[in-house]
Automatic annotation (TrEMBL):
Pathway(s) it belongs to: Cofactor biosynthesis; (R)-pantothenate biosynthesis; (R)-pantoate from 3-methyl-2-oxobutanoate: step 2/2
Entry EC number(s): 1.1.1.169
Name of the protein this chain belongs to: 2-dehydropantoate 2-reductase
Residues in Ketopantoate reductase C-terminal domain copies: 179-321
Pfam families the record matches: ApbA, ApbA_C
Family, as annotated: Belongs to the ketopantoate reductase family.
Catalytic class of the enzyme: oxidoreductase
Organism: Fusibacter paucivorans
Signal peptide: none
Protein origin, superkingdom: Bacteria
Listed SUPFAM superfamilies: 6-phosphogluconate dehydrogenase C-terminal domain-like, NAD(P)-binding Rossmann-fold domains
The protein's role, per its UniProt record: Catalyzes the NADPH-dependent reduction of ketopantoate into pantoic acid.
Reaction catalysis annotation: (R)-pantoate + NADP(+) = 2-dehydropantoate + NADPH + H(+)
Length: 341
């Protein structure tokens, strides 16, 4: 099987290293020429929670040839129009594109390449791009039973999705789900909470849980996400054998405290990590905020549910993109005050 990883930033570099180490025929595709050159010269280096350097094959999009049997799409959603147009000539009739992007990208990907060639999934680990050829793995994946959750848009499970799972299992545990859209909403909730706050405040995940108001905002962001997800008719799956909708349960002070405890338990091992959206802001790039917190806001409008905390994240991040705000903790004053504090 000829495999491509299209978009080799932080996570794509880590995935490419592990799949290549596992002996799969993998080509890493990225438009950052210095990164591609370093990957070819020195291999893909993974640091922090791993110590790994693996020889890999890397190219720029202009160097693509032939067709690919399986493509892991890991670019930012903001680049999808350009990326999918470039990719299309290099897919054959039975190619599979597995989008591992943030948000809920499957419908827009399928609109270009066809639903019969589109599957999707969520990544349940984190990484930070350090420099050309080097990414940090920000959690110990040896302690995680499931690193990926993947599925078909319509929920059926067949040989195709199992073959995608087999490739990813070279890195670690994979769960094949019949509830992809519910899983997508779970990941959107996760990203909207700690990635949204990290980008808004210019801080690490550890900084969020160390600040009472910032941490409380995550519970309110989750509350909005859970309400909208339910209104759309989707059900978020459990994570680590827990009902993650408890993150958004604000029915009492005890429920709020439980929500805060869940956030702490998840993020305490990710203290040094910061959102990829913040990394984009630091580099002066546009973020995926419209596909993460903004996706919740837009869906909320469709089902008549207000989303003030997610609205604030979107407005702050867009102001940072527009250079009218800095990414700093002072932006916390722009968020509503939680009644539980």
């Amino acid at each position: 099987m000829k495999i491509a990883i299209y978009g080799c930033g932080a996570m794509g570099t880590v995935l490419g290293a592990y799949l290549s180490k596992g002996g799969l025929d993998v080509i890493m595709i990225d438009n950052y020429k210095a990164h591609v050159d370093k990957l070819n010269e020195s291999g893909a280096k993974v640091t922090l929670c791993a110590d790994l350097t693996v020889p890999v094959k890397a190219i720029t999009p202009e160097e693509m040839t032939g067709t690919y049997d399986l493509v892991f799409l890991m670019t930012k959603q903001t680049a999808n129009d350009e990326v999918l147009a470039k990719m299309l000539p290099y897919l054959h009739e039975k190619s599979t594109v597995c989008t591992l992007q943030n948000g809920v990208p499957e419908p827009s990907v399928a609109a270009v390449i066809g639903e019969k060639r589109t599957v999707g999934g969520t990544i349940l680990w984190g990484a930070t791009f350090k420099e050309p050829g080097v990414s940090e793995l920000t959690q110990d994946i040896t302690k995680s039973k499931v690193l990926f959750e993947i599925g078909e848009i319509d929920g059926h499970i067949d040989a195709r999705i199992k073959s995608v799972a087999a490739a990813l299992e070279v890195m670690g545990g994979v769960e094949v789900t019949d509830n992809l859209m519910g899983a997508r909403w779970l990941k959107v909730m996760f990203n909207s909470c700690w990635s949204g706050m990290s980008a808004s405040l210019g801080c690490t995940f550890g900084d969020i849980i160390d600040n009472a108001k910032a941490s409380a905002c995550m519970s309110h962001i989750a509350n909005e996400a859970v309400a909208v997800c339910r209104a759309l008719g989707y059900k978020m799956p459990p994570f680590r054998n827990q009902d993650m909708t408890a993150m958004g349960d604000l029915s009492s002070k005890a429920a709020f405290d439980k929500s805060q405890g869940i956030f702490y338990d998840i993020l305490k091992d990710l203290r040094p990590a910061k959102a990829s959206m913040l990394q984009d802001l630091e580099k002066g790039r546009k973020t995926e905020i419209s596909m993460i917190n903004g996706y919740i806001c837009d869906a909320g409008k469709k089902v008549g549910i207000q989303t003030p905390y997610n609205d604030t994240v979107v407005s702050v991040v867009k102001a940072i993109e527009g250079k009218t705000l800095a990414y700093e903790m002072a932006n916390l004053s722009r968020f509503p005050q939680s009644p539980f504090l």
